[in-house]
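Hey,

Quick one before I head out. I ran the complex with adenosine-5'-triphosphate overnight. Inputs first:
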Amino acid sequence: MIKARFQLSRPGFCLDAAFEQPSSGVTALFGPSGCGKTTLLRCLAGLERADGELWLNGANLHRLPVHRRRFGYVFQEASLFTHLSVRNNLLYGWRRLPKGQSRPDFDEIVGWLGLEPLLEQGTASLSGGQRQRVAIGRALLTAPRLLLLDEPLSALDSRAKREILPWIEGLSARAGVAVFYVTHAPDEVERLADRVIFMEQGRTTRMETLQQAMARPDSPLFVELGAASMLEGELGTGLADGRTPFVFHGQTLWLVHARRPGGERVRVRIQASDVSLALAPVGGVSILNQLPVRVLALHDMGEGRVLVDGELNGGQRLLAEVSAWSANQLKLHQGMHCYALIKAVALVN
Ligand SMILES: Nc1ncnc2c1ncn2[C@@H]1O[C@H](COP(=O)(O)OP(=O)(O)OP(=O)(O)O)[C@@H](O)[C@H]1O
């Protein structure tokens, strides 16, 4: 477990943050600009002098200086050594690991991040996404106890961001290291995070699993794009007619244009406004996906809209946005069974 509490004041800003998280997987630190995400990450790293405490798996790290914490830190813009090749940048911390400490496998980490073709290059010719991959590799090669990533994609354009995301995904599990990931981009949280710590005005306001964070209508993750649900399951083999099955808890959703090999664990995203409800299965419609759902709660969103919080077979949650008029017509109420008609399903990873 990681248990942390930090208090710090500077003119115009106070940090008062506390959390407890498992020491595995990816925890996103999410909140608006200026709420203190970077400051909290810097407190974890030991780069800020804050009051409080920091425990990692029972060890008290709070008084330890930065280098003795052995955390990897990657900033918004990778600061690579310009006089060294990619290989020597990667090996920089690895070579300096204390004698007797087990060394991460260089080739393995290079492979995880797809860095082989770049190894003998200088850093000047690297794209922004490649630089970040090298910075993450360099941090992992120091065998960090925690990996701290501070908005590593924020300086990249959307194409570079799309390219780098698959390399970052799954890294925490492969390397067996817990990752703290600062971002204000909901799509990065949905794609990468297992858990989310929400922050506002210097305070940690809530800690949730991604599923919990996406199952409440007032989730800060929904502010820009509206409510959505995330389902986890397995991709099946694509059919000749263009459909690919996504299977979860014995149910199937059909995706179109998935173009991916079957057998992978994936997440899919369903926008609540793309989900309609019906009292019985509907025939003669173009909608591919209909799933039974049980109504857990109805939330009045104002402006004649109702957000229906539903539970699918197996327990995963599905949000549907319907008009208040339709909710009345269907007499939707808690505990009721109905069918979700899902217009679009997007693969997240
Ligand atoms: N070195 C500094 N000296 C003084 N104030 C600072 C310093 N760095 C940050 N601040 C202030 O501290 C507050 C928290 O900043 P912080 O960078 O932690 O927020 P953030 O949530 O990471 O923001 P962003 O998403 O924009 O990076 C802000 O009010 C910021 O202006």
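The longest helix spans residues 128-140.

Talk tomorrow,
K.
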